[in-house]
Design goal:
With 417 residues, the protein is of the alpha/beta class. 27% of the residues lie in helices and 29% in strands. The protein starts with a strand and ends in a 10-residue tail after the last helix.
Length: 417
């Protein structure tokens, strides 16, 4: 439950789950009686935040992250604007960023599955959109974005797992099953959606199918789905991720003997852990700013945060404990399971990362070398955990492209190839 602000009628706005409902929603609380009532909800989705009018300083709507980012407004005027934009850009992600005091002009962020998003000025009276600028003007169309779609697949216990699948824009009819990259990008509970993904689109442009699982524990699907991941980062959550490749192979879409796993941030941990799994014989694994040694990482968190911070609670909930000396922590640490690694490994890490320090990749590299495993390590400089500089991302993509080409089977020849 999170206090969001005040509604126009003076009632308190809260994002949370009244009456133990499964999904987070926006509801109001009467300050005199304490009675609550639903203001906005998204069927089968969690409301992620309340939206505040920058001029009136009251809550006027809410947003949620479904397959595409969406918003809804209780303010009639803005609700009408949002509906107009939805008719102009059907199937797109619409974000009303800010507006003039009289609401005659609105800055809008728009993104579709065929572009990387951009900012527009909307003239309300004329219902006219004018482009301000695209975030990545050179990234446009299916040829560069890839064919992104939402799928579900069965986990080993039969549970249907939602995921985003990105396919190459074109595939020769006789090429057969595609090589697959299992991609985990960002925080362990982050939800993959149809929004632009620089990694997934790049890999698809190189001929790979790319799947981004929304395993149990992922935020956005309700409380039961989220709680199912508590203490399960190395167990149920990772099993759900691995089961994506098995399901896609059974469907005839990918070659189960030509699979690599790539992870960024917390996803780097998932990629390295998968490389130790007997379930699938990955040909390669890539970890970018990932975690590899859980006991060492938890000790680092305690030294860094001192008190029991939100950051530490996040990982304690994922792992089920914060006892860095616990033998179970070594058992789920890729750096302590190097002997079980069957894939070639690429470690990319920035030396200034203060969330997952470089020592994590150093520990993994040393363990792999000691075990006689194949490992390459690239150290970045002048960046941070989130790798936002264009030059950094270009270098990462180049490193990954070369590594995949070296360790996966040759890609099917494209038209004219």
């Amino acid at each position: 439950m999170a206090f969001a602000g005040a509604l126009a009628n003076g009632e308190t706005a809260v994002v949370g789950r009244p009456d133990q409902q499964d999904n987070d929603l926006l509801y109001s609380v009467n300050p005199d009686t304490g009675a609550d009532s639903i203001v906005l909800e998204a069927p089968d989705q969690d409301v992620s935040r309340a939206i505040t009018d920058p001029w009136l300083h009251v809550i006027i709507g809410a947003s949620w992250g479904g397959d595409l980012y969406s918003e809804s407004y209780v303010d009639p005027q803005l609700d009408n604007v949002y509906r107009k934009l939805a008719s102009i850009v059907p199937g797109g992600s619409i974000h009303l960023r800010t507006w003039t005091a009289d609401r005659s002009r609105i800055v809008v962020y728009l993104e579709t599955t065929r572009d990387a998003g951009g900012f527009y000025l909307f003239d309300v009276a004329r219902s006219q959109l004018s482009l301000i600028g695209m975030l990545h003007p050179e990234i446009k169309g299916i040829a560069t974005i890839g064919d992104r779609r939402v799928i579900t697949y069965p986990a080993r216990d039969g549970t249907r797992i939602p995921a985003v699948l990105t396919l190459p824009a074109s595939k020769p009819a006789a090429a057969g099953p595609l090589p697959l990259v299992v991609l985990s990008d960002g925080d362990a509970r982050d939800r993959a959606d149809l929004g632009y993904s620089w990694l997934a689109s790049f890999l698809a442009s190189r001929g790979y199918a790319v799947v981004e699982p929304n395993e149990r524990g992922t935020y956005g699907y309700g409380d039961a789905w989220k709680v199912a991941g508590d203490g399960q980062w190395a167990h149920l959550m990772n099993n759900d991720i691995e089961d994506a490749a098995t399901a896609l192979a059974k469907a005839g879409l990918i070659d189960i003997n030509n699979v690599c796993t790539v992870g960024v941030g917390d996803g780097g941990y998932s990629a390295l852990l998968s490389a130790t799994s007997p379930s699938i014989r990955y040909r390669c694994a890539v970890s970018v700013n990932g975690i590899a040694d859980i006991p060492r990482f938890m000790t680092y968190l305690k030294l860094r945060t001192r008190t029991y911070s939100t950051f530490r609670r996040w990982y304690t909930r994922l792992l089920g404990t914060d006892k860095e000396t616990n033998k179970a922590m070594k058992a789920i640490s890729p750096a302590h399971r190097a002997n079980a690694v069957q894939a070639a490994v690429l470690l990319i890490h920035d030396e200034s990362d203060t969330i997952s320090p470089l020592a994590q990749s150093d520990s993994m590299a040393a363990a792999l070398e000691k075990s006689g495993k194949s490992v390459q390590q690239t150290t970045l400089r002048g960046e941070d955990h989130y790798l936002e500089e264009p030059e950094t991302r270009i270098r990462i993509l180049q490193e990954i492209e070369t590594f995949l080409a070296d360790h996966m089977k040759p890609l099917p020849a494209g038209p004219g190839g």
